[in-house]
Amino acid sequence: MKMVTLALLFFLVGLVTKVSALNTCPKCGSIEVPYPLSTSENCGDSRYKVYCKNGSLQFLSAKGFYYNILSINPSAYKLVISPPLIQKNTCYSSDLTLGGLLLDENLPFNISTRNTVMLLNCTDNILLSPLNCSLNSFCRQFENVELGNGCRGTLCCHYLKDSAMTSHMIRVRVGGCTAYTSVVNLKPGDPIDSWTYGIELQWLPSN
């Protein structure tokens, strides 16, 4: 009886493993695509849609803008997307015309609380906000690296994307701030060459 039970247990474990393997999407370039993320109708969970385009795994915003996926941590239900490029001659983010990053609130993704967002090329109205726009703001360091030197001398601020704010948007606009970047898990005193540029998203576990 024990042997039958043991055999049945191994069978069920094998069946679950096989089903899970069948539902996992193939690699996209060098990045593994863990369940429930889905690159096609034949794998993953369609609510967790991502896109494999020319060997690059990408996340699609609610406004139709594609962001490259830099890394995925399936055990923490998190992935990191690249911030938009900043045009050096204008200090405009490449997603400015779409208002920045906007996530579909009907999908199981949101912006995590570990992102330090830097807003660049802002109008004076930003000074009425509680954001850090001082000379000690992280954005002043960002202006001194190649990624941000096109925004040098503009009014800039930073803030931690905490739970008190909307978790589905990083907003930029003409007449407000026209560019932004983000660093994941940034701590005071971290040298700038150790910064991890990205926007960390988290997803709700799949049923």
TrEMBL record:
GO terms for cellular component: membrane. It is a single-pass membrane protein. Residues 1-21 form the signal peptide. This is Wall-associated receptor kinase-like 20. Keywords: Kinase, Receptor, Signal, Transferase. GO terms for molecular function: kinase activity; polysaccharide binding. Residues 25-81 form the Wall-associated receptor kinase galacturonan-binding domain. It is found in: Membrane. The keyword Heme does not apply.
